[in-house]
Amino acid sequence: MESNRKNHELQWTARPTPGGLIVQVSGQVDAHNESDWQRMLDESGVAVPEGSLLVFDCGSLDFMSCGALVALAKQAVDSRQRGVTVRLVITQPSIRRIITECGMDDAVSAHPDLNSALNGHLPP
User: Fold this and answer.
1) Taking the chain (124 residues) in consecutive chunks of 10 residues, what is each chunk's mean pLDDT?
2) In this structure, what are the phi and psi dihedrals at residue 55, rounded to the nearest 5 degrees?
3) Residue 108: what pLDDT?
4) What is the distance of C-alpha 29 from the center of its chain?
5) Distances (CA, A) of 40 to 12, 86, 120, 121
6) Which of 33, 70, 97, 116 has the most CB within a 10 Å radius?
7) CA distance linking residue 35 with residue 13, whole number of Å
8) What's the chain's Rg over C-alpha atoms?
């Protein structure tokens, strides 16, 4: 699965990994492309089998709106009902701040790098 808008601000690619799926996301997600973000979340959610891991690697994402974060949190809840664990890689301090300011720290499992997301470890 891959975004079909190469020149659009939001791009993604997905690749299987043992035990799940990694979705590499780059660009920005804001009000004008939240429908693309939602499509990516939906496609990723159905592509990963029950009982596996779904990692959204947003390390190359420059901006994430609160609406995009809410959609991600909903995807995490829906996925948990199917036994799928959703984790997020975030490297931008501004996006981590949005997660905190939107009160989503408990809803979104944010990790500083792909390795910690895959292994479920947060740094001390």
Assistant:
1) 55 93 94 93 94 94 89 92 93 87 84 92 60
2) -110, 125
3) 85
4) 11
5) 8, 14, 22, 25
6) 33
7) 17
8) 13
How far CA 90 is from CA of 4, 7, 67, in Å, comes to: 23, 23, 16
Question: Letter for the amino acid at 47?
Answer: A
CB of 88 closer than 8 Å to CB of 110: yes
The edge-to-edge listing of strands for the beta sheet with 110-111 is 11-17, 20-29, 53-64, 85-89, 110-111
| pTM (predicted TM-score) | 0.88
Q: Look up residue 40 and give its two tokens.
A: 């990516």
Are 107 and 73 a contacting pair, CB within 8 Å?
Answer: yes
Q: How many CB atoms lie within 10 A of CB 33?
A: 20
Give the per-residue pLDDT at 72: 92
Which letter does DSSP use for residue 39 in this model?
A: H
